[in-house]
Design brief:
It contains 2 helices and 9 strands; from the N terminus they run ααβββββββββ. About 10% of the residues have low confidence. It has one domain: Immunoglobulin-like (Sandwich), CATH 2.60.40. Keywords: Secreted, Self-incompatibility, Signal. Its main location: secreted. It is found in: Secreted. InterPro entries: Self-incomp_S1.
Length: about 140
């Protein structure tokens, strides 16, 4: 009898839909995107992102490319990034709030956004979200270099 119970439990986990995973228990699936929108022929953008649990390493995205990652966002999840561009550098949290990406992001993204969109430009950093009504990404300047 126990043998059949073990087989049934095993099969339930094998055939369980892929969208049901640990995020459904521990929090909500979130994405962070970093888009290199610097001018062509400018110094290489370099950045390093990490959380208390995950070091995403150093990245050198080409202009116009998007580096992104997905994670289970819980109340205490925090990701920060340090950016370098020529002689400029800046570091800040890119995610620390499950509703608005960052605690002071309520003026930049609607509540309950699932994707935190960061755009790096020569004049600073822009925070955005996908605007369903306009069917495009919408950004507002978040901070200077």
């Amino acid at each position: 009898m126990v043998y059949y119970l073990v087989k049934i439990i095993f099969l339930v986990f094998i055939i369980m839909p892929k969208n049901i995973h640990s995020c459904s228990i521990s929090g909500f699936s979130r994405e962070v995107h970093v888009l290199n929108n610097l001018p062509s022929n400018s110094p290489q953008l370099k950045f390093h992102c990490a959380s208390g649990d995950d070091d995403l390493g150093y990245h050198y995205p080409a202009i116009g490319t998007d580096f992104n990652w997905e994670f289970c966002g819980a109340i205490n999840t925090l990701f920060f990034c340090h950016f370098w561009w020529g002689d400029k550098d800046s570091s800040f949290d890119v995610f620390n709030n499950v509703d608005t990406c960052v605690w002071d992001g309520e003026d930049f993204v609607p509540s309950d956004t699932m994707k935190c969109l960061w755009k790096v430009q020569d004049d600073g950093f822009y925070l955005g979200y996908f605007d369903e009504y306009a069917n495009e990404n919408s950004y507002k300047k978040y901070r200077d270099w």
